[in-house]
Amino acid sequence: MNQKITAAITAIGGYVPENRLTNADLEKMVDTNDEWIRTRTGIVERRILNEPGKATSDLCAPAVLELCKKRGIHPSEIDCLIVGTVTQDMFFPSTANIVCDKVGAVNAWGFDLAAACSGFLFSLTTGVCLIESGRYKKVVVVGADKMSAITDYSDRTTCIIFGDGAGAVLLEPNFEGYGILDSILRTDGSGKHYLHMKAGGSLRPASYETVANKEHFIYQEGQAVFKFAVKGMADISAELLEKNNLTGKDIAWLVPHQANKRIIDATANRMGLSHDKVMVNIQRYGNTTSGTIPLCLWDWENQLKKGDNLVFAAFGGGFTWGATLVKWAY
Ligand code: UT7
């Protein structure tokens, strides 16, 4: 019999640093206030990895170890590890390489995937294809960013949004139709002007000038990105439902990228979902870029039921955006 393989999430791990940066802390650093941040973004505090010598791989490693423990496997059983991130430890080797070494995934290969806030969704779909090919049995997909490394804490329009964190999922073959059922992913490079990091790449290698001009930090035209994000995330989520003959009533949970509570609300409204079906933890972690969706799964894992239909949705720099349909497997 020819059984169709789907890729199912079989375990979740997560990690956020202990150190909290509250709205009250930010009031002392830039001209802002708690009320503005709460009402314009929904954020109350974020976690910041401020220990010297620690990088994105140090967010990933505990998340990966946690999922291995939960699933009862040794890291040496992992076949492939993908890290969605735009804050790699270094240009090369890849963060995935470093994470494999830190956790003891000695039989794995891996790579980083840069798709900004859609990094987890793009990495997930890539991992799904590896499982569906029948060639790999255990693929770990991590979404992780140490956004504090590229945030200018004198720029009030960006420093209030971002935080550090990582979430990880284990993908394994499923033969009963559970797992990741569909994805629609998109990119539009003409959107790069609105959200990017100006220097440090081959276009503008690091120099005294780029450092003096603060070009190694996030550059974001917030209002423009906001408009694209509201439309992009809502449209693609609605398109995914329609393509699969589903309506909001069929969906147990929307798992949205946590960039701004107002973008999340717009997406939920467009899908016809009541707010108790939407995972929101932006108030506690801020925008952890690739980390947001798996960190929601980590926080809500106990409430998920086998057979639940979930929609993951994201929009980010690039522009990149997408939505994924999941039938929860445990
Ligand atoms: O993660 C993936 C991609 N990123 C996003 O999806 C982020 C999308 N953008 C946003 O979430 C919002 O645009 C921001 C949260 C970044 C900014 O919110 P906004 O409502 O779009 O603010 P704005 O830029 O339109 O500014 C409104 C006002 C301005 O004052 P005036 O000109 O009206 O007097 C700003 O100077 O708010 C002012 N402002 C602030 N006030 C207090 C901007 N930042 C702050 C601040 N505190 N931190």
User: CATH homologous superfamily name of the largest domain?
Assistant: Thiolase/Chalcone synthase
CATH architecture of the largest domain: 3-Layer(aba) Sandwich
Count of distinct structural domains: 2
Low-confidence stretches: none
- Spatial strand sequence of the major β-sheet: 1-7-6-4-5
Shape: globular
Binned, the helix content reads 25-40%
Give the oligomeric state of the chains in this entry, treating copies of one chain as homo and distinct chains as hetero: single chain
CA radius of gyration: 19 Å
Order of helices and strands: EEHHEHEHEHEHEEEHEHEHHHEE
CATH topology-level fold name of the largest domain: Peroxisomal Thiolase, Chain A, domain 1
Bound molecules: oxa(dethia)-CoA
Mean pLDDT, all residues: 97
Name of the top-level CATH class of the largest domain: Alpha Beta
Largest sheet: 5 strands, mixed
N- and C-termini, Cα separation:
25 Å
What is the tally of beta strands? Answer: 13
Strand content bin: 15-25%
Q: Which structural class do you get from the secondary structure elements?
A: alpha/beta
